Amino acid sequence: MQYREYGNSSKPLMMFIHGGGVGGWMWDEQVQHFSNYHCIVPELLSISPFSIERCAHKLLQLIEEKANGKTVIVIGFSLGAQIAIQMLSIKPNVSDFTMINSALVIPSPTMIGLMQPLIRLTFPLVKNKTFAKLQAKTLSIDDHYFERYYHESSTMHIEVLLQILQENMSFSIPPNFHKAQGKILITVGDQEKSVMKKSAKALLQQHPNCYGVIVGNVGHGVSLAKPAFFNDFVEHWIKDGQLPKGMVM
């Protein structure tokens, strides 16, 4: 698996797992802020054929190689959050802190059935910049990152996109998730789709020791939409367990 390392290799390990449709670059603001940690940012599309379970096993192996007994913090967004859930289900003690941002865990058989013909029909639109800008907006991708996002999305092979969407839309909470150890935080934006909020609640119901936070005035992608807020939020949660007031689920 391809990955990048940042920060101080003698400090606690922080792994940032990106979402679908974006790359490790989505965490640029985080690795700059957490320069006093040993940050690892994998590139999920370096796994082929793609699957959430294969990625989870690869990342578990990477943590085992790099952690060396250090505190481990795993932060996943969207597809990356699903992978983090899978990692905890395979190895419950993999991390001391796990933040699961906007994880879909409620499959929709109807949407899964419609997905392949719909994607094949609309796939040429990914090369259309107007369409790409609309898609980027839903992920809170600003002008600074748009060209990178557009290049990656417009050069992605349709079969890879279908693999990712199939995995993402069919993902459900693994049977062993309730055994996960460490501190686990579930977050969702208050402007996200109802299925995302239901997914957050389902995760909380499956694991009695999880905490949940609804992030105000944000949709899908709080770390991109509000990087300074997100960084402070993560830092306070890790250091003293502090959560923003009025936002706990």
Automatic annotation (TrEMBL):
Pfam families: Abhydrolase_6 (PF12697). SUPFAM superfamilies: alpha/beta-Hydrolases (SSF53474). This is AB hydrolase-1 domain-containing protein. It comes from Lysinibacillus macroides. Residues 16-232 form the AB hydrolase-1 domain. It comes from the Bacteria.
